[in-house]
Amino acid sequence: MAAGAASADRYGAEDLSIFAIRLLQAAGMDSVIAETVAHVLVEGDLLGHDTHGLALLAPYVRELEQGSMARSGEATVIADRGGALTWDGGRLPGPWLVMNGINALMPRAREYGSATLVIRRSHHIACLASYLLRATGAGFMIVLSCSDPAVASVAPHGGKRAVFTPNPIAAGIPTSGTPFLIDISASIKTNGMTARLHKAGMMYEEDCLLDGEGRPSRDPAVLAASPPGTILPLGGLAGGHKGFGLALLIEALTGGLAGHGRADPAEGWGANVFLSLYDPQAFGGSDAFLRQMDWVADACRSNPPRPGATAVRMPGDRALAVREEQLGQGIALHPAIPPALSECARRYGLEFPPPH
């Protein structure tokens, strides 16, 4: 079975959420925080992002056990100017901070038209796409991005030494139908998928990495070699200046605006976060916004497919279809996830739920 393939077994989303909540609570996480974190992780798997869903649960438990993730508490307000807000996350779980951030920004975005929060010293925030429906369902456009100042796996275009993380950026855009759910990164591949392929002893199909000497490579093992290799920026060898520029923008939005980042001592696996909500009614009007986005959606979906393609999909179309299917039929987890979580659960006297 390929490293990216899902298991034939399916698990109820509610069963998985309950299990994740209990495991996080057993590891010491505050019950209210655990509930939010569990639902965000399960949402990642529902949307088909199986490297950033429950695959993160055992690593999160390990961070709790080591004291690297805060178990309870609240973010500290560093600055508040109405439409611009800065928090210190105090190493609290990223899903808890981001969901609280969306809730905090909604009334501000209604009042001011837009509102932005940056969070320094968050822990990892899981799958960015998991948060988008919370905003688009309320009629907002959302932009969300993060970087991890303690990790470097992506080299700048033309270089061979890692400076950046893959630096993901996501956007949720309302339409009259299903929203656009954009979730991309400034690198060709992610750390999560690269680690999964490395563990499985598999190769990428194309040269998307550099080895430690700067030579193109398909082998994920180069990231663990000495000297370590790197992941290429989006655009690859020829067009990597585009991913490099995107990575710089995300560094400015996250570490730059938060005032804390790669120039500071590393504190461990975590994130700096940029989060912004926009109320279309405050600009050209909600109806006008939807008319424009609906036109673009129709023009793209009706576009004649190129040879080898069946149809044009808008970002989020597949994820939302997978989500609907898995809510009804159960989540098809990656086959590496149930054994890892079963082993983790046994330490706390818990059992991973059986498949349907």
Task: Give a verbal description of the structure.
With 356 residues, this protein is α+β, with helices and mostly antiparallel strands. It has 3 domains: 103 residues, Hypothetical Oxidoreductase Yiak, Chain: A, domain 1, CATH 1.10.1530; 185 residues, Malate/L-lactate/L-sulpholactate dehydrogenase, NADPH binding domain (Ribosomal Protein S8, Chain: A, domain 1); 43 residues, 2-Layer Sandwich (Wheat Germ Agglutinin (Isolectin 2), domain 1), CATH 3.30.60. It is built from 10 helices and 10 strands. A 7-stranded mixed beta sheet has the order 1-2-3-10-4-5-6, sandwiched between helices. Strands 8-7-9 form a 3-stranded antiparallel beta sheet, with no helix packed on it. A hairpin with a 6-residue loop joins strand 5 and strand 6. Helix 1 runs antiparallel to helix 2. The longest helix is centred in the last third of the chain and has 23 residues. The protein is globular. The mean pLDDT is 96.
